[in-house]
Amino acid sequence: MKRLRFQPRFDARECADAFADGAILGYPTEGVWGIGCRADRSDRVAEVIALKRRAPNKGLILLASEPAQVADFVLDQSQLERARARWPGVYTWIVRCSTQAPAVLTGGRDTVAVRITEHAPMRQVLDHLGTAIVSTSANLSGRGMRERTWLTPWGAKLDGWYRAPLGGLGHSTPIRQAWDGAFLRGGPDKDD
């Protein structure tokens, strides 16, 4: 498996190749550092959950550069398109999932969280990869984020880090329900 542990420069194709090969990587997002792997590799997704010490019933976010990359996981693509029509803004959307979406992604729910990223470094990676990855913040569950997450002792357990700039949001993305726009995390009346 390709490892990027000490990658000194920005290289979207190399990061995409490592994801394609099954790597679990740390990477920048719009607001915080994330960890993830290919969404269609349930074995590796389970490892992300274990590494994060995340409760399996929480599910994970699917990160993609285009709606087509999440088509196998989303029940109704038009629901995602309706949600995207509410932009501008950086949001993760909860949509109804297809029966093909494994419980390891959804936490056993009939929904899945999806974000079509506008973050340029990750868009380049996902465009090269051609499929979605799972995404969760790069901190242990229940602990806050750190500015330089890749220096934490547990971070060395990843297959590598794609070091590129964060998107400048400064916090995790707000999460909204696609069918009614309600905020589940963040938003105008909730703490981020």
TrEMBL record:
> Where is it located?
Cytoplasm
Query: Any one cellular component term from GO for this entry?
Result: cytoplasm
One BP term from GO: regulation of translational fidelity
Which InterPro entries does the record match to this protein?
A: DHBP_synth_RibB-like_a/b_dom, Sua5-like_dom, TC-AMP_synthase_SUA5
Q: Does the keyword Glycoprotein apply?
A: no
Question: GO molecular function terms here?
Answer: double-stranded RNA binding; L-threonylcarbamoyladenylate synthase; tRNA binding
Quote the EC number. 2.7.7.87
Reactions catalysed, semicolon-separated, are:
L-threonine + hydrogencarbonate + ATP = L-threonylcarbamoyladenylate + diphosphate + H2O
Q: Which residues form the YrdC-like domain?
A: 9-189
Q: Does the keyword Chaperone apply?
A: no
Q: What is the enzyme's main class?
A: transferase
Q: Which UniProt keywords apply?
A: Cytoplasm, Transferase
Name the Gene3D superfamilies for this protein: DHBP synthase
Family according to the record: Belongs to the SUA5 family.
Identification of the protein by name: L-threonylcarbamoyladenylate synthase
Taxonomic lineage is:
Bacteria, Pseudomonadati, Pseudomonadota, Gammaproteobacteria, Oceanospirillales
